[in-house]
Amino acid sequence: MSRPPPEFDLLSRAELGRRRTQLLARIRRKYNTLTESLYFGPLNLEFVRVEDPNVVLDQIVIAEDRLEKLTGKRRDGDELHLPYWAELWDSAFGIAQHLVRVRPARKVIDLGCGMGLAGTVAAAMGANVLLADLEPDALLFARLNTLAYSSRSCVRRLNWQTETLDEKFDLILGADVLYDRKQWESLDRFWTAHLNAGGAILLGEPGRQTGDLFIDWIASRGWRLDRAQERVESRAKTIRLLRLTK
Questions:
Q1: What's 197's DSSP letter?
Q2: 217 burial class (0-12, 13-18, 19+ CB within 10 angstroms)?
């Protein structure tokens, strides 16, 4: 079994603690948090997440109700930016377990990273990682969770529907990004534009019907698809891993 590489990060223990304290204080002004010890093979992560994702959703619903009373208008789900990022999805656990057994490529992007579990594990295993999400609050958690690997990780706000980057990656991760069929065309464009020759896409999917439909859809787009499964410890679901290559 692969073991995490030794750390060569430049932050001293004191500086790491100072930055962690600052980020936690910033996050806790808005969210209650929970710190968990997560184990993936030999890797032990102290991971900070939203304590109750349902509270975050309730806050958005209450704010939207208040706005509707003032303006007479109600926004749809896309405009609301519903806080899917605040849930620690089983698919991210499946990808994380896989990355510990099969050390990730050198240059990785965790697309739609949420609180950053998959990207944090990739960085812990020695990859240079960009953690990207549309939601700024998600990126605060991702920054916090990757602080110990800050010399080889960074976060960026990114809308994969409209933006492109001036770099390519050896591995593109996506934990539970296939739930909305309207996103598939944009994802396909982004993957094609940002994957290095010989690289791969690694998707975690919990067995939804949309995942079944995606398997047939992506085969018609010129991708080779390999499938595997991950049994997530302490979780009920078996996660499908979909590996795409050109």
A1: E
A2: middle
Q: Is the pLDDT of residue 215 over 90?
A: yes
pLDDT above 80: residue 60: no
Q: Return the residue matching tokens 């998959």.
A: 118
Q: Residue type for 10, please?
A: L
Q: Is the confidence at residue 125, as pLDDT, over 70? A: yes
**CA distance linking residue 92 with residue 69, whole number of Å:** 38
| Strand duo 128-133 + 107-111: pairing | parallel
d(CA 50, CA 246): 37
CA dihedral angle for residue 140, residue 144, residue 147, residue 152, rounded to 10 degrees:
-40
> Domains in the chain, please, with CATH?
13-48+84-245 (3.40.50.150)
Q: What are phi and psi of 112, to 5 degrees?
A: 70, 50
Q: For the beta carbon of residue 161, count every other beta carbon within 10 angstroms.
A: 14
Amino acid present at 134: L
